[in-house]
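Researcher: Here's my situation. A collaborator sent me these components and asked whether they could plausibly form a single complex. I don't have experimental data yet, so a predicted model of the whole assembly would be a useful starting point for our discussion.
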Amino acid sequence: MPSSTVAFVGLGSMGAGMVRCVARRGFAVRPHDVRSEPVQAFAEETGSVVCTSAAEAADGASAALVIVLTADQAADVVFGSDGLVGRLPQGAPVVCMSTMSPGRARVLADQAASHGLRWIDAPVSGGTVRAAEGTLTTMVGAEPADLEAVRPLLESFSRDVFHLGPVGAGSTAKLVNQVLVYSNLAATAEAVTLCRKLGVDLQTIYDVIRTAVGTSAIFEMRVPKIIDGSYASGGSMRIALKDLGIVEETARELALPMPMAAQATQLFRAAAASGGLDGDDLAIARLMEQLAGL
Amino acid sequence: MPSSTVAFVGLGSMGAGMVRCVARRGFAVRPHDVRSEPVQAFAEETGSVVCTSAAEAADGASAALVIVLTADQAADVVFGSDGLVGRLPQGAPVVCMSTMSPGRARVLADQAASHGLRWIDAPVSGGTVRAAEGTLTTMVGAEPADLEAVRPLLESFSRDVFHLGPVGAGSTAKLVNQVLVYSNLAATAEAVTLCRKLGVDLQTIYDVIRTAVGTSAIFEMRVPKIIDGSYASGGSMRIALKDLGIVEETARELALPMPMAAQATQLFRAAAASGGLDGDDLAIARLMEQLAGL
């Protein structure tokens, strides 16, 4: 890194943990989020400045990290009137960790290049707990030299940093992961409901399945939050619908049949309709129980 | 165990490994299968007798283990004209490890009781490799005393023996597991196809997903067999269709919507139609690739 000051835009459920990992690693962070509370909380905790725009976050920074919800938001953060572009030095790396289609990542990278910025396509996986611990999986699509320039930043919040190829390859890996996450989650909700309908204790079934071939990371992360009755896993329904929408769009562009992801998508939409967009993605389990009359 | 001689019926892909675990633990095994080859191979290897019927296997045995494909086959092995019943001593335990609906397990247990036999509902999970190693997950529905009577037998091929409740509870756990196994496998096939369609190296994606939230036991067991081009996982398409059929039947009886399992079922049927019933369940991955024009 040419210097140790970095802009960090997006202190949501994932970003809030990650920005603290970056700060703990000794980087001077200039944080920004459209909501002021998480930025204030971070500033009070770490003594950082408070930036009221992405442009302000970029002042004096040699690199930028962006983890906002959508590709449109990322484009606005970087290229908008109050964006990073123009404030970052020529050749500065922009690490974009928002989930988007590989095609969209390439479009943004081309646009960044036309402004003299280097684009690192770097979505993450692991959930909010691993984000806070700094043990995420980070999936990078970038030129090798561009990845090396930001590796210490990425390692501050990652257990594993994978280089998958050029820009777009990181987003591809993330999409493949999300197909599995949400299909496995919909199947988990359904399996749990079957178990309850048949009257067998869910905690015991959980202990069994964890040692059997039916287990998955999602099963092991989510089922305890069904057993404890909270249905509060930290997974966001808004993100589930958004990511499944990207999968749907990508499949349509490729004319690729994706029957399991399509079924999961319909179920998450139904769960959002009853549980709300602002809720937990475990609303899918409540939906299945309602459908079962439980 | 009152004595150390046991009947073992069903030396298929799972049973062939399990019967060897039982013999290694010092039990005198009386093996039977409708196909003579696996019985001959086992007898040559261990010096056991060769039994040409279930009835013959039961002669002098104090317990019986049955792992055949279907509930109908299990009923025939136990209660048929050449079956175990009548040859086993009164009060002998019959361990039935075939996957079936919980309701069917209870019917067979009642029938066994009317003949003075004790029924242990004990399906297993883990696949052929763990069957051969003796590290299966065994899910037991039985009276506690009946489980204790056969525990040394079960432990000979199990890493974990779980007691889930009365007869039917073991089959419930197995069904819940199979919903997850085949839904996760269909999703894995779809995710792999998306990855290939987008041109990212599957080995690299595999390494990434294993550390990310999308991973599952099925993903980790099956994807290496797609990468190596063999599509030979040891998973049986016949068993996939049979188990998904039991899920479908159970869901129908409960009037329970199971949209993910239903979608997976349709896909496995399509895969069987092109790949054959006698093939590997990874034909689902070939199917998805064909549908994608790969």
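Model: Some features of this prediction you could bring to your collaborator: Chain A has a mean pLDDT of 96. The domain at 172-291 of chain A is CATH 1.10.1040.10 (N-(1-d-carboxylethyl)-l-norvaline Dehydrogenase; domain 2).
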